[in-house]
Write a structure and sequence with these properties.
Elements: E1 2-4, H1 12-17, H2 21-24, H3 29-32, E2 39-43, E3 47-53, E4 62-67, E5 70-77, H4 81-84, E6 96-104, E7 113-117, E8 120-126
Antiparallel strand pairs: 1-6, 2-3, 3-8, 4-5, 5-6, 7-8
């Protein structure tokens, strides 16, 4: 069983001013969606496969952590001095930080693996036997 906060292309501030997506369409997309990323969660039987789309992000800018069933993927993208020295006329990619999470109630704490290739982060989270978390209590 997995649950996560769904992807939303507008941040909270933008949603408060533009709550009607059908009316305003993608007006704010260029300025708001660079600070988040999309995630897919697949139940593959004996494991969960979490895929995060993080184009332009390097390995050392990503942090993956499993804490009490909550898998967190954090991105902290910083520009290099070389990028800062360029004279951009318009720039829609830049520095940002974002954390996305998903609750995986039967996630095992061992055997996790992650791979970054072509801007796609794939995290494999093995499932543990749910009975391991259940303790029967006898009634007197």
């Amino acid at each position: 069983m997995a649950s996560m906060i769904p992807y939303d292309r507008y941040n909270r501030l933008a949603r408060s001013f533009f709550p009607f997506d059908d009316v305003f369409g993608d007006v704010l997309a260029p300025v708001t969606n660079q600070a988040d990323f999309k995630m897919d969660v697949e139940d593959a039987g004996d494991k969960y496969v979490v895929t995060a789309h993080v184009p332009g992000v390097k390995r050392d800018q990503i942090d993956v952590e499993l804490n009490e069933g909550r898998l967190s993927v954090s991105v902290d993208k910083k520009d290099s001095d070389e990028e800062k020295a360029k004279n951009y006329l318009q720039r829609e990619t830049g520095e940002y930080s974002c954390t996305r999470g998903v609750f995986l109630k039967d996630a095992a704490t061992t055997g996790l693996s992650a791979k970054l290739a072509d801007g796609i982060l794939t995290v494999n989270v093995p499932k543990q036997d749910e009975k391991a978390n259940v303790t029967k209590v006898s009634i007197d």
